[in-house]
Design goal:
Blueprint (H helix, E strand, L loop, with lengths): L17 H9 L3 E5 L6 H8 L3 E5 L1 H9 L3 H21 L9 H12 L12 E5 L20 E6 L2 E2 L2 E2 L2 E6 L5 H20 L6 H14 L8
Parallel strand pairs: 1-2
Antiparallel strand pairs: 3-4, 4-7, 5-6
Helix pairs in contact: 4-5, 6-7
C-alpha cells in the first residue's frame, strides 16, 4: 500500500487480453474510468471489448494531480535533491573529450545509487556546442570542445515522482556572444519567477520573461 491506501494490483500476461483481466477483477456491467491518452489504438480496442462501460477520466485525474499533499511535496523535494546531488558528483567529468552520451550515462548511474530512483524511465538530455540550442534534443556522440555551452536537462524519477532540472555550463572560457546572452536569459528567468504567484495567468509570466529578451534585442529568438 502506498500513502496509506490499500489498492489491489491486477496483473495479466502479454499473451492475454486486458479485457479478460478487467472482467475477472470487476465483473460485468460495471463503469470504469480510464486515462485514455495512455493507450495505443491496439490496446484501447482490446480494453473496449471488456463487459464494462468505459469513461475517459483523464481531465479529472490531471486536476487531482495538480494539487499535491504534504507527502507528495516532500517526495518532489527529495527527487530534486537527489538530482542535484548526482549532478554535483558528475561535474568533474564535464570536460573536453567526453561525449554527450557518456556524461548522460554517468548522471544516470549516480542517480540510481538511491534505491528510490526508478531507472526504467528517465529523461536525460546532455547537449553540447551547437546542440545546446535545441530545447528537446537527444544526447549523441558529440564530444565536448573548449568553449562549448553544455545544456543539461534531466530529472530523477524518485518514488514515482519526477524532479525536473535544467542547467547550463561552459567548458573553459565562454565565447563573447554567449557571455552577452547568458545574463539576459538569466534576467528573463528571474523576471518570470518574480511575477509568479497563485492566480496569475501563464501569459503574464511569459510576458515578463519575453519583455526582458525583447528589450535586449533578441525577441525573435525567444523560446
Amino acid at each position: 500500500a502506498r500513502n496509506g491506501y490499500d489498492i489491489p494490483e491486477v496483473i495479466f500476461l502479454d499473451s492475454e487480453s486486458p479485457a479478460a483481466a478487467i472482467n475477472k477483477a470487476l465483473g460485468a456491467g460495471k463503469k470504469i474510468g480510464l486515462e485514455m491518452n495512455y493507450f495505443s489504438i491496439a490496446v484501447g480496442r482490446q480494453i473496449a471489448s471488456a463487459d464494462t462501460e468505459m469513461v475517459d477520466v483523464g481531465d479529472i485525474v490531471l486536476k487531482l494531480r495538480s494539487r499535491k499533499d504534504a507527502l507528495e511535496i516532500e517526495t518532489i523535494r527529495a527527487a530534486a535533491l537527489c538530482a542535484d546531488k548526482a549532478l554535483a558528483d558528475a561535474l568533474p567529468m564535464l570536460k573536453v573529450g567526453v561525449s554527450e552520451k557518456e556524461f548522460a550515462m554517468e548522471l544516470l548511474r549516480l542517480m540510481v545509487r538511491d534505491p528510490k530512483v526508478n531507472a526504467e524511465s528517465y529523461v536525460i538530455q546532455i547537449l553540447g556546442g551547437a546542440n545546446s540550442a535545441n530545447p528537446h534534443g537527444a544526447s549523441s556522440d558529440y564530444v565536448f570542445k573548449y568553449g562549448d555551452a553544455i545544456t543539461i536537462d534531466y530529472g530523477a524519477y524518485y518514488d514515482y515522482y519526477w524532479s525536473d532540472v535544467c542547467r547550463t555550463f561552459f567548458i573553459g572560457e565562454a565565447p563573447a556572444k554567449l557571455k552577452e546572452c547568458y545574463p539576459i536569459v538569466l534576467e528573463a528567468h528571474l523576471a518570470g519567477m518574480n511575477v509568479t504567484k497563485p492566480g496569475i495567468m501563464a501569459k503574464e509570466i511569459d510576458n515578463a520573461a519575453r519583455g526582458v529578451i525583447t528589450k535586449a534585442g533578441f525577441g525573435e529568438y525567444f523560446i
